[in-house]
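seq:
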Amino acid sequence: MKYLFLLLVFISVEGFKTNAQVIENVDAVKFKQLVDSGEGIILDVRTPGEVARGHIKGATAINIGEQSFATKVNLLQKEKPIYVYCLTGSRSVYAAKYMAQVGFKKIYNLQLGIVEWNKYGYPVEKDEATVASTSVQYNEYSFSKLIESNKLVLIDFHAIWCAPCKKMAPDIDKLKVDYKGKAEIVKVDIEANESIAKLYNVVSVPTLILFKNGKQVWSKSGAMNYDELSSIIKQYL
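struct:
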């Protein structure tokens, strides 16, 4: 809660910089239309407990009350529309204002929160118990060995809380199987490997980087499907 207070202070001090056209407050009907379009990123800023009890399918969960909120939010793609919500709209509006100030292009805020979403009977998902991350950690030496020991290596920089990353995961797993012996497909948790992410200028998730003989030959920020990634890999085999 102390961090949330500091965030509110930042917003109040920097509020004059917010472009009102960047943020649009919408009702649940409009919000569902936006969500169903699949064009943007759904962002739930409630606590993990609230999220587990019921959230909109495909939502990325980043608790606005946590100290890591700003760091995580700034890893989202700023050029994509953001569909943000909380319980009643009181927290999401501050999240929207913060995101507008740090360069997000368009933010839609569910004005009355998931309470209104539930009122209309729109679907929600419930989570099972969260499993602790067992992500592999690399240092500069071990990462260099990884990309140099294989002719072609595709790195998927991701985060466990990133919904687009989760959506892309089955395609990444299929690529691992289909290109076994031809290319190495490796998932790298950006939070467990901050120094590696910084070294390769990874500023959003997912980010995909392809290495050939230890040299970076291609990169892209944002989710891609199996066919798109397979086509890229084939170009460099």
